[in-house]
Amino acid sequence: MREYKCLNCGKMFLPGNSDAMECTDFCSESCESICEAEEEKKAKIMLHPGTQKITNNIIKEEILNLRKSLHVIKKNILAIDRDYKQACNLLETAIEKLETCLAYRISREEYPRF
Q1: Which of 17, 44, 47, 68 might form a disulfide with 13, Cβ 3.0–4.6 angstroms?
Q2: Are residues 37 and 72 in the same domain?
Q3: 7-63 pLDDT, tens per residue?
C-alpha cells in the first residue's frame, strides 16, 4: 500500500491512518495527487520508438490470436452449456480490456529525445 505525504508538514501516512487525520495541515486531495504523479513518473519506462512499435505490434497479434481462439471455442460450444458460455463472456471481456489498454498505451507513447 502506498504512503501519502502531507504537503504542509511533510508527514508520511497510509490512507485511513488515524494519525494523518490528527494532522491539522493535512490536505488529502493535494497529497494524493502529488503522490500519484510521482508514482506515474517513476513507473514510466522510456523505450526507443522502434521498440515501442514492435511491442505494440506483438500485443496486437496476441489479441488477434485470442479473438481467433474465442471464435473457435464459441463455434464449438453447445447452446445449452452455460458454464462455457460464461467463460467465453469473461474471455471476451478480458480481450476488450486488453484492447483498451493497448489503445491507451499507443495514445500515451512518449518518444525520448536522443
Answers
A1: 17
A2: no
A3: 566 777 666 655 555 554 455 555 556 666 666 665 565 666 677 788 888 889 989
